[in-house]
Amino acid sequence: MQWEEEMCIVHGDNRSAGDKPPKTVVELWCRARSGHSVTLLVQGLRPYLVVAQKGRPQPADQAQSALEFLASMDEVVEITPLGDLWTDKGEKPHWKVEVTQPYTVPRLRKRIQDLWDVTSADILFVHRLLLDCDLGPHILACGEILWAGERAPAETQNETTGDRTTAAGRIAEAGGSGLYPTDMVLSCNLEDLSKAEPFRTPFVTFSFDLETSIQTNRILCAAAVIDRAGERSEHSFRGEEGDIMEGLTKLVRSEDPDFITGYNIDNFDLPRMLERMDVLSGRSKMDGAELYGWGRVPILESEANRLLPKRQQNRVWRIPGRIPLDAWWQVRQTLRPERESLRYVSKLLWPEEEDMHKLDIDASQMDREWAERPDEVVEYCVRDTILPLDILDRLQSVARKEALASVSLTTVESASLDTTSRWIDSLVIRLADRTNVAVPTTISGPRRRDQIAGGYVHEVESGRQPWIVVLDFKSMYPSIMISNNICSTTLVRDDSTDDSHSVSPTTETRYLSKDERIGLVPHLLEQLMSSRDQHKAALAAARESGDEAEAFLQDQLQYAVKILMNSFYGVFASSFYRFTHPDLGASITEWARHNIRKIISDLETEGYDVVYSDTDSIFVRAPVDADAPINKPEESSSEFESWDRARSETIRFGERLAERFTKEGAELEFETALSAFFSHGAKKRYVGRVIWPREEMLIRGYEVRRTDSFALLSRTMTEMFEMILDGEEWAAVEMTKSVIDDVKEGRANPAELIISRSCKGTLKRDGSVDFSKVYDNPDGLPYVRAAKERIRRGLQFTPGMKVGYIVTDSKASPMDVEPWLVDEIGEDPPVYDPTYYARRLAKSLGRITEAFGWSEKELLSGSRQQSIFDF
DNA sequence: CAGGTATCCTAC
DNA sequence: TAAGGTAGGATACCTG
Question: Do A157 and A222 fall within a single domain?
Fold first, then answer.
């Protein structure tokens, strides 16, 4: 029975489907737009690599005997000429060498690379399918139904499609491995797949959590929640450890989720499952599959390798067919919270809902808690599986991954777990293949030592400046790449010159004109720029018509395009990427420095004051009445008119500068107007009172922005900035002195003194953490000592997480610190070292007050003057 | 106690 | 043996 519908590719893999003749099947695990899961078995694609004669271009017929030898090799099935392809040594004849199976490609590449230039030889087979058929994650697929389970659409279920035994046979015949745990299995050919418009897929997510014994590492209980497009069901497991693991595994296999989440699963739950599986199953791999066979493949001896979750080195976990997405990592990336415990994060996200973060179990005493009140432990465990789902919902993590997959034309798994260079690959290789450019392999080996120069940062003077306009270049690096046609394929590598070339300002790196050859990178960036404009227009139209769902989708897509565009520069300025050259990155930043410096010097020549500039931005003093008040007066007040006039003149000045300095391909935008700007004289650290296009305070670089500052410092500094920007520096100093006095007297709230820093480490197989591999002197670092103390006390620590601590004695060397455990186990706060905190406050705040003549020493001395604070 | 090194985090 | 970049500020520890 044939079936056709739209679906989204979650993940893909391939397997051999016979040797004589050699056949390979691509397995695509998908979620249909209508909700059920599908395994697509795609036939008809054969693995290949591409070769050319080494060195300078030579006539194709000189390759004849070498080609004959190549054709005689075991792995090689067929060789076909591709004609001339572009390479950095010129255009030359290439041949497509089809091979038996994907796994032979790297082997063959190594064997022949002394004889041939080998290209297109490090591309994952499933990506090959998306590239060659020009598909993205959203597809329309048509195929023969080999299996239709209970959740498959009713009209697909009948006696034939629903019979397990015969289904397994049909699947094997189509090159699949057996009865996949998906709702449907379809067989199709390459031609049966086509690109579909993006839609929001109703993915299924599985969230789980383990509670384990601190003494023995044994799993005491577990919980899981399934989210099926918003519909949730809760499950809990207790009893024998093996039964718990089997229960979880059965649930994964029957509910068949696309995403697997939880809090800290990457470094805790997933490795712990593997460790306990080893303990319980001994040597039999198939016992292991019953305990932990979460891979989306049948439970068969032949699938032993794909059934279990895996992680190479210290990288992300991979589960064939599914996507492990740690809620902790998503929180870290999108929220950047000061602390990262689940309790802290849930309070941050849902401050109103008390029972969501009720603290009732002491995780550091899990064995005792489990012995005394197992029901509460299970309840606690269930709650900790619901929160990660709520977090992913709130952060829109899944929708973002899907949008990124859609704009980079890759699988959702690749968008979720792969790195920037893979997403770029997906677009670049596709275009290279279509425009006859050979695709070199990624460069391996040691990193380049000499760095390229980066952006220009202007010196900033200490003090306050009134009425400033901030302008910046729109998408500076992408614009430079587009307007100068910067690409590996347009770089002039010999010393030829031509008037049509685009020539970089100082090193005189040359690029071909667009008329001669349009570079891959400029071509793609231009496409992305216009597609972002289209998504933005569609977003506006959807909002207009009240179509919330469409507006959401278009907003996700335009944002994903932005992210993708901004990552081009980094990848092409890197030392390893396949289409890279050191001159590329260097000339992009060279143009950038040149452009911004030119504007600065033009403005200065005309007598304007450039206060600051960083890479693509410029801060200029507006020529307005210097006596106008900088803090906004009441509208009824007599000074209001003066302020308001300064404001409109500043805005007009900003608009005028933007217009004047905007050129074709380099758009300077008027970003904000400030009534006051302050810096203590350090680059990348400044504050501004924004008065246009909205009213707010802008802070960059200062401790206020840093997650490793402490709350009291951030709060005091923010208040200080408010006062300084209002012109009340004396009050700021007095306020600061009173804060420091309180700290010295021991009156500060210790919760405001927590310092939190990320701490690395390597996870050992038995679950313990090794710090000495990543740190020269681990015990010399306060946060490592705090992490060690956490571990000693039976609390979770996973490599990379932030550790909160209080300094208790700074006179000791190294200083004494204690971890902050109040959130997690309700422990009394440590007693802080008043001298240390007073000194840190005075130092950080003193740097700022120094601009007005008050030093750190004066803040610390406590010699407060009579002030408005003394009532 | 000055200066160098290791480390973190941020701006762009 | 996997991989977006550079510029810059700040802190703690260690050494001489």
Answer: no
